Please model this.
Amino acid sequence: MRIGLIGAGRIGAHHARTLLSVPAVDRLVIADLVPGRAEKLADEFGAASAASLTDLYAVPLDGVVIAAATDAHAGLVHQALDAGVPVFCEKPLAPDVAGTRALVARAASGAVPVQVGFQRRFDQGYRAARDALRAGELGWIHTLRACSSDQAPPPAAFVPTSGGLFRDCSIHDFDVLRWLTGREVVSVYAQGANRGASFFAESGDVDTCAALLRFDDDTLATVTATRYNGAGYDARLEVCGSEGARFVGLDDRAPMPTAEPRLSWRQSAPYATFMERFQDAYVAELTAFVEVVAGRAENPCPPVDALEALYVAEACERSRRIGEPVRMDEIRAE
Model:
């Protein structure tokens, strides 16, 4: 199978390595908008490179993976659809609701699949928690607690184009909570804070946030995120029900040293990045995309799911700014 990869930056390099580990991928062609960067990455991995996107689509491709800068995603997805090539796109599909709605409508009207990159759906722990819930082992859910914590902040230049902490980071939690529970969020109340570098506030963003979500069955969820978790990269979920519970992310690399004197567990080096934490999930995610391209599997994460997660992120950002709860029907109606 011949797969194109657009984007040769950090996540692009990670996806290149992952794609080359998928047995069905026998040719990888890399392109990037920055001259020379695709060729350099292709040489590193023994892949091919294309000097331009026109040259990339001149190669008969079975699918394309988009890992370019966030603000380029929408245009690149439309270009892939113009070429009739199945596409995998890292979140977000577009930087705003209008652009995402346009892609949802276009994808729904055609036969070319568009898979969105929410890798937590493919993590074994999140999947096991979902399976336990769906099997009735947990009873009814009363509380969900999710966190996403970076060990260190991103470069200052990234923040103005990131969309903000809720849209860039917590959106993974919003998606996985919908996917796990099968329920919709009806209202949110969110807060944010800045105690770190000044460039977050200067861009209208926050470096730490917390949100309270109410689902349509009255389940409550808390979602927190920060750019300054010095102990290591931390992504966890607690699913608490009337009959049982599941805790995701408490493995021997979780950055959670205990304060209890009579409790300990063996720890390896804590995760430093999301790519380390979710390496196996990325492999499973891109393997699933290859199966979608081959027509052997249904799309596990269609564009409409990206839109719903974005709606929650938009509601949280609005709540943070106005200091009041926001109902989801207000966001969807705009």
